[in-house]
Amino acid sequence: MYGQSEWPFQIGERLTYNVSFTGISAGQASLEIVNDAEINNHHQLHVRFIAKSTFPFSAIYTINDQIDTWLDSKYLYTKKLTKKIREGNYHKDLSTIIDYNQSIAITNGDTIIIDQFLHDSYSLFYYLRTIPLNIGETIDFTAFDGKKITPFQVITKTKETIYTMARTFP
């Protein structure tokens, strides 16, 4: 990847989640690093989230969501976000382009003024994997979703060791 060769993820990484409801399989979701492409003379990491309901749950309520986000390959802030949400009868399409040089974010034609780098939930997930999280430390972020910008903090309160069949993660 253009930004960091030592990142704890790589192109092609896919995290897959099985979803159940009261013990019955309801669907599957995946988060994947699709590629690291040069777009408008800037390297951007393309991340895709897909969520789909499965039978028998889909016979009652169909979910077919796709969210694509493009992150600055070096610093992992969001540059572009598209959402195609299909949940039952609810349908929503969203497209956001962020122009940091002009300090604006354009969502479905509406422009908002920004004054700092923004993270969507997916860019934040990858960014947090690249930094040390020290107990007692507070990290400030600015998140966005469509036209809503929200400042928030990540506070590391404790550390936990995760044991898996593959390895132990301290």
Topology:
Elements: E1 14-21, E2 24-39, E3 42-53, H1 57-60, E4 64-72, E5 78-87, E6 90-99, E7 104-107, E8 110-113, H2 121-128, E9 138-145, E10 148-155, E11 162-163, E12 168-169
Antiparallel strand pairs: 1-2, 2-3, 3-4, 4-5, 5-6, 6-7, 7-8, 9-10, 11-12
N-to-C SSE string, H for helix and E for strand = EEEHEEEEEHEEEE
- N→C terminal distance: 25 Å
Q: How much helix, percentage-wise, in residues? A: under 10%
Shape: globular
Protein name: DUF3108 domain-containing protein
Organism: marine metagenome
InterPro entries: DUF3108
Kindly describe this structure:
- The protein has 170 residues and is mainly β.
- It has one domain (14-169).
- Helix content is 7%, strand content 55%.
- The model has no long low-confidence stretch (mean pLDDT 91).
- This is DUF3108 domain-containing protein.
- InterPro entries: DUF3108.
Short description:
This protein has 170 residues and is mainly beta.
Primary descriptors:
170 residues; mainly beta; eight-stranded antiparallel beta sheet; two-stranded antiparallel ribbon; 12 strands; 55% strand; globular; DUF3108 domain-containing protein
